[in-house]
Design a protein that fits this description.
- This protein has helices at about 10-20, 35-50; strands at about 1-5, 20-25, 30, 55-60, 65-70, 75-80, 85-90.
- The protein is of the alpha+beta class.
- The chain has a single domain (about 1-90), classed as Alpha-Beta Plaits.
- The chain is flat.
- The mean pLDDT is about 90.
């Protein structure tokens, strides 16, 4: 299983992703493909994202049970600690969190 979430993506990319994956919510695409096909879909996303951002997550044989990658501006950064992938948050500019 794989999941791709896009933000501020060009319509052309959204249409392209909907050819391969089911859009279960605005900007959220899911499907089940081989590693080779997943990498090709992600490469297309990387090439077409423009000023937007995207994240991909897929089932993997590791302690977490999944792996992920992201492109574009994002406050979240993956970090690896003792074989686990965790997420580190960067503060908003100006230092104030919005709720």
């Amino acid at each position: 299983m794989l999941v791709i979430v896009v933000e501020n993506a060009p319509p052309r990319l959204r249409g392209r992703l909907s050819l391969w994956l089911a859009e279960i919510r605005a900007g959220v695409y899911v499907g089940s493909y081989s590693t080779r096909t997943r990498e090709r879909i992600w490469e297309e996303t990387r090439r077409m994202i423009g000023q937007g951002s995207a994240v991909i997550a897929w089932a993997a044989a590791n302690d977490s049970g999944f792996s992920f990658d992201s492109i574009g501006p994002n406050r979240r950064e993956p970090i690896w600690i003792d074989g686990l992938t965790l997420v580190k948050f960067h503060p908003l500019e100006g230092g104030k969190e919005q709720v």
